[in-house]
Amino acid sequence: MERAELAGWLRLALTPGIGNITARRLLAAFGLPDAVFDQSTPALRQFLTETQTQALRTEPPLLAAQVEATWEWLHGTDGPGRRRILTLGDPDYPPALLQIEDPPPMLYLLGVSSAAWPAAIAVVGSRNPTPQGLANARQFARSFAQAGFSVVSGMALGVDGAAHEGALEGAATGQFATLAVVGTGLDRVYPRQHLALSHRIAQAGLLVSEYPIGTPPLPENFPKRNRLIAALSQGTVVVEAALQSGSLITARQAAEQGKDVFAIPGSIHSPQSRGCHALLKQGAKLVETAQDVLEDMRLPDALSPRGPARAHPDPGEADSAQEDDVLSALGFDPVSLDALVARTGIAPAWLQGRLLELELQGKVARLPGGLFQRLEAG
């Protein structure tokens, strides 16, 4: 993008009273921003009020400073292609966002450059989850990544952070692990506790924002960005959520976009479970394991569950036979170590070692509560 083109897009985005919906109508009618600004007043008045038309005729006072800041950010030292801006009409603009009513005219990206936007599942929930909620978010996200999906979340404290961590743990080398849709400019990290996490996401995934460089963490921006989390995902999993929760906004927007919404049930005594229970009453799908979600989404062959690269050499023939016995005994439902011992007759110490190997190979997931679950047919 040339500097003059960047200035035109920023001017359109920064013009007071011109929101995403109006900007899209103007671009559809007249083409690129420079062509919009070249239109006569009568032409503009077909789409704008008098106040909007006057605002569009006036250059925003902070435009020059914003162009300079954005240009400097765009040409940072992260390496070629790691900082990008996609605009409406760009061939790389995510097709899913074009399906919503108000796609951002400008989308700021930091991280891995990919030939196509990945198949993804959103994992969202409380900023103050229970320990079990944190464990669930991490394990579900890890299993999704092992199945070939990217995990979308908002990089907030609590469930969001655990979901990103789980995806990074479960993704194979070179896999597009996770997308973090944030509510600030990409020159800022919020919350600051996730500074290191944001760097890891940028190395194995993508940070995404619709907000201009320099935008601070304004409270109203976070609920608004949730529509992008929903749109970039094939389905949304709500791990824990209070009744007044941004996660419920994401779930509602996912449902409005025709996407599947999944909710994990919890204790009737826990405030963090009430939002999930409300979703279930409204028709969300109850899930107890990540496999429930994967099976419901009817994965095509290209996205069938797979594990990350092997972490050690192939075992010998005897170990392979034992591996088959263990996988057969696991079935596809979560099972405890004691139950596996009873099913296989294998000594607990050896069985624990074998389960760890299978976990490292991505064939078995370790779930909360000391349970294990098979991830692929083997």
Describe this structure in words.
There is one protein chain. The protein has 378 residues and is α/β, with parallel strands linked by helices. The chain folds into three domains: 1-66; 120-303, Rossmann fold (3-Layer(aba) Sandwich), CATH 3.40.50.450; 317-374, Arc Repressor Mutant, subunit A (Orthogonal Bundle), CATH 1.10.10. It contains 16 helices and twelve strands. It has helices at residues 3-14, 20-30, 33-37, 41-44, 50-57, 63-74, 131-146, 159-170, 195-204, 221-231, 246-256, 271-281, 290-296, 317-330, 337-344, 348-360, and strands at residues 83-87, 106-111, 120-124, 150-153, 178-181, 205-209, 235-238, 260-263, 285-286, 335-336, 364-367, 371-374. The strands form two sheets. The chain has a nine-stranded mixed beta sheet, sandwiched between helices. A three-stranded antiparallel beta sheet has the order 10-12-11. Helix 1 (3-14) packs across helix 6 (63-74) and helix 10 (221-231) crosses helix 11. The longest helix has 16 residues, at 131-146.
